[in-house]
Amino acid sequence: MISDPSMFSSAPVLEGSDDDQLLRVSLGPQHPSTHGVFRMNVVLDGETVVSLKPVFGYLHRNHEKIAESVTYLSSMPYTDRLDYICPLSNNWAYANAVEKLAGIEVPERAEYMRVILAELTRLINHTAFMGFILGDMGAWGSALMYAFRERELILDLFEDLTGARMMANFMRFGGCRNDLPDGWAGKCSVLVDDYGPFLDEMEKFLVGNEILLVRCQDVGQLPAEKLINGGITGPMLRAAGVNYDIRKADPYGIYERFNFRIPLGEKGDVYDRIMIRFLEMRESLKILRQALDQLPEGDFVNPKAKIRGFKPPVGEAYARIEGPKGELGFHLISDGSVNPYRYRVRPPSFINLTLLEDMCLGLDLADVVIILGSIDIVLGEVDR
Amino acid sequence: MTAETEAILGEIRAALPDAAVSMLKNPGPAAQHSLLVGNHDLLRVATFLRDQVAFDLLSNVTGVDWPDPKKANASAAPEGEGSPAEDGFLEAVYHLYSTSKRVGPLVLRARTADRDQQVQIPSLVSVFRSAEFQEREIFDLFGIQFAGHPDLRRILMWDEFVDHPMRKDYIAPDDYEYEPTPHDAVLEKAKRHYPAES
Lengths: 384, 198
Known about the structure:
The complex is a heterodimer. Chain A is of the alpha+beta class. Helices cover about 45% and strands about 10% of the residues of chain A. Chain A is built from 16 helices and eight strands. Chain A is globular and about 70 Å long. Helices cover about 25% and strands about 20% of the residues of chain B. In chain B, the strands form two sheets. A six-stranded mixed sheet of chain B has the order 3-5-6-2-1-4, with helices on both faces. In chain B, β7, α4 (about 130-140) and β8 form a beta-alpha-beta unit. Classes of the chains: A alpha+beta, B alpha/beta.
C-alpha cells in the first residue's frame, strides 16, 4: 500500500502530546471509503489528525492531452468518463462550452431535454451520495441498496433514450443526438411522481437518526469566506449558507424559466451537506415536473450545426454549469482547426478537495472518512 | 463583455497606476476578453480585484503552451498599448467570478518570458487558496514554476517523471507498457529501443 517509502524514511521523528510518537497512516488508495483510487497521507496524534496530504493521480490518463489530439466531437464520449456517476451533466457542460466557442444556437426542445436529463442526473448523484455517505458511517449495504434501487429506475430511462445506462454520449453541439422515444416523457413523469415518496421514506429514516446526528453534526465546518476563497462550489458551499448556484447566479440553458429555490445550510457541517442534497433533490423534482409539462415539440438538434469538419472560429470560451458536485467548467481555445488548441476541464471534485486538510485538522480519523464522503468526489474527474 | 472588461481595466489603472495591465481581445463569438498582467504586478492586481472589486472566487486556473506566438496573438489579440508576443511562451489563465455581484468571468493572463529558462510566474495561493492544486497541476503538466507556492510538487504524474506532458512538443515515450502483440507502427517504434539484429 505504501508506494512512496521515502515519506516514511526521510521524515523527522515526530513527537506528539504526552511524549507519544505520531503515527503516519497511508489511507488508500484501495480503501473502500476513499471512493476510488485516492490516497491520503495522514499523521495522527493518538486518534487526532495533525496533518493530511492528499495524493492524486492513480487514475490519471491525461484526458486534456487526448482531447487536444482529436476533433471536438470525439471528446464527447470521453466526457462521460470524467464523473461517471453523472455522464449527462458532463456532456452538457462540454456541449455548452463548444456552443459558446462557436456561437451555436440550441433549439427549444433540446434545451428542455437537457434540463430534464441534467436534473435526473442530479437525482442519481445525490441519491447515490446518500447511500455512500451512510456506508462511510457504517451503515454498509442497506442504504446503498435502496439508493441504487431508485438509481436503476432512472438508468432504465437513460438506457431507453441513449442506449447506455451510464456512458450516454448523448449531447451534440446544438442539441441532442436523438429525440425522445415514444412514451418516454410519460415514463419519466411517472418516475418523478414516485420519487417524492421514496425521498420521504429515506428522509424519515435519516433525519432524526441518532447515529447520523452524532457522527455528522459540528464536523468539518469552515467559515464561508474561506470556502469561497478555496474555490469550493456546489452543495458544499451552499451548505455553509452561501447563496451561489450557477443555475441562478449565471443562468445557462433555460433555467430562468423554472420556478425553484436554492436550499441553503446554516453551519456547513457534514449534516448540513447531507440535508442540502435532500432539499436539492426536491427542487430538482419541481424543475422536472415543470419541464415535462412545458416540453415543446420541435427540433432536438439545430439542423444547421455542422458535425463533420466542424471548425470553430479562432478564439476562446469558458463555460460552466452547476453540476451535481459543483461548478463544472470547460475552457476551450480554438486556433481554427478541427481539434481544440487547448481543452481544459474545471473539475469540481478536484478543486473541492483543496480544503480537505483544513476541514480535518484536529478531528478524529473516523471523521476524515465522513468529511471526504461529504465532499462527494469521483476519481475519474479528480485525476482525469 | 467588452465594456465590462474595459471598466475593470479602468478601475485597476485608477487604483494601481504603475501596474502593467493591458487588454487582449478575444475574436470569437464568446467575446470573453482578457487582461494581460505583468508578472511583477500579478499579486497586487489579484489582491485589488479580490478586495476592492469583489472578485472573490478564483474559479479556474489553467496553463497554455504557446510555442508559436502568432497563434497566441490571434486568439488573444493585443489592444491599445499592449504589444504582441514575439517568442514562444507559457501562459497561465485565471477565470475570476464574483459570488456577491454575480458577474464574471474576468479572465486574467500571465506569461513567462520563454519556454525553457525563465518559466516563473508568481503564485496566487496567498490571495486565492483555490489556486493551490491547480497551480501544482500546471507545474506538473506544463512546467510553469509558480514562485511562492507553499508546496510545489507534481500532482498527477509521479514525482520521478521528468517531462511536462501537456506541452505541444512533448513526445510520448513508446516503451511504457508491455505490448503483447507488437504490430505495424508500434513494432517500428519499438525497434528503436533495441540494437539492430545482425
